[in-house]
Amino acid sequence: MRFLEPGLAGKPVPVTTKRIFWRVHRQRKKMEAEAALELVKHGATLLLLDVPQNTLIGIDTQMFFSGPNFKGVKMIPPGVHFIYYSSSNREGNEFSPIVGFFVEASPSEVIVKKWDSKDERFVKLSEEEGERYAQAVKKLEFDRQLGPYALDQYGDWKRLSNFITKSTIESIEPIGGEITIISESEMVGHVHKTAMEKVLAEQLKNSKFSKPDKKSLSNGCYYTSIPRVIKLKGVSGQDLTNMNLDKTHILETILTKQYGGSEDSLLGELQFAFVAFLIGQSLEAFLQWKLVVSLLLGCTEAPLHTRTQLFTKFIKAIYYQLKIGFQKDSKDTSRAEKGATTSLDESLLSADNFLRHLCKDFFSLVLDAPMVDGDLLTWTRKLRELLERTLGWDFRLNSSVDGMHLEEDDEFAPVVEILDDPDH
């Protein structure tokens, strides 16, 4: 007679079969432990020393609130990442504006930072001291104090950053590498105040941590200058109007002069600015993202004829930016309460009419074209459906205005300016 015992699904399993199951189970656990150890050894590590409790620490779309034993993050996939932090008061209920920086992590690299309690920021160690800590990490001396990188969220991060390279970071990042709205205080009083810009400006104005510190602040990022209008000598007003209605000429000029003809470099800057805006809460980054999006969505010739592949990649990139940005989960509420979030506010973005207007005209251009690239058509439809489903925007054309959706005070309305200065 064979004795039966309950299996995983509640069905009887022979004892001999159960022994085999537990043997396989132990082997699987051993393999998982070995795989985790490989990730620890070959993944990058962020070691943070002397971090005060309740400090917000983030990498990519993941956030941690430091406890007494927290010393960083392990198992970080090699590649580009955005690291950010926010200090709190003693009670842990008020947080400073986010400070963030991009890194390109190599396999097994250990990035070591130490908390400076005086300036409330992370600083680098000397090369010798940093190497000593790096060796300790590789010997797993800090392993129990390191939180694992959530690999199930890595896919979203790659979709937000797949065009960002080391070259992108080096060409745009500010002196010192740190991106923060605190260094943008002079900008706040001089920008066009849309709903989103007002929120970011108010965050800086009302923060108790926002007093400028000349020793720690940078001069801002080195974003590419993108003109809103073309200014040319000896060109008729009608021709200038046509050029500014279709921004293909501006796009081609910028690609050639600023990016050496590299389309991916432009998309890398688009993603850099979005990450710095969404996660780093930078007003300057939001303005740059807005300029790049407005430039590309303002083209009519390039999407259908000369730069179809660029626009397919662009629409795919902005689709994931908005899709991931609109994601809400149970953690977002607590993050927002503490002054940090990685989600877009739908009502605020809805108030920034530039995106709705430009998307409406772009969708009409692509979806009504007699011939269009299949991939561009697919991703344009996906983006339209996302905005309709998430924000409730209606992209049906209003026949009374024949597809034009520019309001009198629309800051992105075409502007014609004829100059006699040959330098322009």
From TrEMBL:
Residues 223-396 form the AAR2 C-terminal domain. Residues 43-174 form the AAR2 N-terminal domain. It holds the Pfam family AAR2_1st. Coiled coil: none annotated. It comes from the Eukaryota. GO terms for biological process: spliceosomal tri-snRNP complex assembly. Transmembrane segments: none annotated. Belongs to the AAR2 family. This is AAR2 protein family. It comes from Solanum pinnatisectum.
